[in-house]
């Protein structure tokens, strides 16, 4: 058991490093309006966050992470560009069915983070290098990905807009995504909706039900997605290799999936920028599905540093979340990328070294 003071000491060390990188230290509220978080993540966040009711402020949520309150504060009165850092507790419910003894799954734990709001195209490489250098003594495995690559691939499928939107909505839920893709790849069975003898009843109005039936009948007439496209998508989603090898594979795949070509060009430029900062790309793993099981605001570059211990979450993680700034900025957007380190896990690794 690592004492809380030791975790704080490690956190302060990283916080100082982020301040040296030009970041302003901020301290977002611990108790946040639940409405904004529910709008962003959907009702699924209730299973992971602590929600309470305030008689004046309404439904509130203990801070599940720092990025959302930092973005909200920045979009209200922040400068462009801007750098922020922070250190504090976050609160997450854990899966009681997880019996792995090695998993350090605290309900309350420290996060130390760095967020960069800038239009500089080198920002991804700068943030990744900052975390890479700070964590270098721990010999962690660096992993990267790009959610924009996957979103572009889905947009490029020969699907109706409704089906493409449904797949993109579930891209962060691999199980649901796979089931939906399988359904769209199978010939639909036409459903008969006979005129009911009884009066309409239930929460939906008769007009709503008629429109829904029309949508189901229209979708049933859509031809299935060709197997060649599901195979290409599988090749992309399962791609995991050292970054130079992955880039070569992506370049080949882009010939069959032209929609991902711009994303591949961005990834190549990003890898060049990372290499220019003295980082060995052959030691960086590119995982095309990296970021699919994290919070849903990442829409571009993603990264993590893992210790390779069974049941452990990443020691550090982060990514790009441009769309989140647009949502919280009420239409005003500024490119942003950042990440967090878990000082408790770092303290444990250093104690056992």
Automatic annotation (TrEMBL):
Single biological process term from Gene Ontology: histidyl-tRNA aminoacylation
Keywords, alphabetical: Glycosyltransferase, Transferase
Gene3D superfamilies: Bira Bifunctional Protein, Domain 2
InterPro entries from the UniProt entry: aa-tRNA-synth_II/BPL/LPL, HisRS-like_core, HisRS/HisZ
One example GO MF annotation: histidine-tRNA ligase activity
Entry's Gene Ontology cellular component terms: cytoplasm
Domain Class II Histidinyl-tRNA synthetase (HisRS)-like catalytic core intervals: 7-338
Pfam families per the UniProt record, alphabetical: tRNA-synt_His
Descriptive protein name: ATP phosphoribosyltransferase regulatory subunit
Species of origin: Paracoccus hibiscisoli
